[in-house]
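User: Can you recover a sequence for this backbone? Please restate the input before giving your answer.

Assistant: Of course. Working from this structure:
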């Protein structure tokens, strides 16, 4: 694996440290990423996304979804079985896990649902009004708009 030195990026830029940290994290992560539980990331609309994790064998109260510092953290802990079971074959993994997803700026979690062994997490990109593009009207410099104000006659006040 190649090692990249990102220190010139830190020296030459201001305010891009989040991007540099993300690149550093991606480049320094081990090649063997955890594959449990399997998941999908889909784009459901222009600014909407859904992460679906296969969490067969876990109940709602054994799953946790949290957002911490632009990271979505999904974790699960299996409650201890009261009844000791003897498995002839155990193919359904119900081991504890913690899966992290890095969220971009202005992405927020809108909901989560657990159905048919799948945990669905819905995300939405919400760009603040200050960052949205806006159209600026261009005034013609040669035309000066003058509004005339009509003078109203003063009312005479009757004196008694």
């Amino acid at each position: 694996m190649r090692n990249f030195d990102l220190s010139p990026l830190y020296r030459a830029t201001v305010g891009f440290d989040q991007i540099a940290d993300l690149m550093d994290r991606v480049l320094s992560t081990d090649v063997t990423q955890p594959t449990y539980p399997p998941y999908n990331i889909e784009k459901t609309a222009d600014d909407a996304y859904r992460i679906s994790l296969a969490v067969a064998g876990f109940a709602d109260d054994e799953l946790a979804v949290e957002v911490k510092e632009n990271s979505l953290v999904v974790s699960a802990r299996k409650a201890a079985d009261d009844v000791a079971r003897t498995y002839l074959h155990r193919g359904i993994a119900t081991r504890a896990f913690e899966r992290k997803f890095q969220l971009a700026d202005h992405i927020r979690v809108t909901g989560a649902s657990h159905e048919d062994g799948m945990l669905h997490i819905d995300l939405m990109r919400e760009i603040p009004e200050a960052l949205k593009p806006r159209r600026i009207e261009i005034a013609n410099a040669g035309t000066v708009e003058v509004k005339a104000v009509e003078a109203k006659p003063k009312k005479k006040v009757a004196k008694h």
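That completes the design. Residues 62 and 78 are 6 Å apart (CA to CA).
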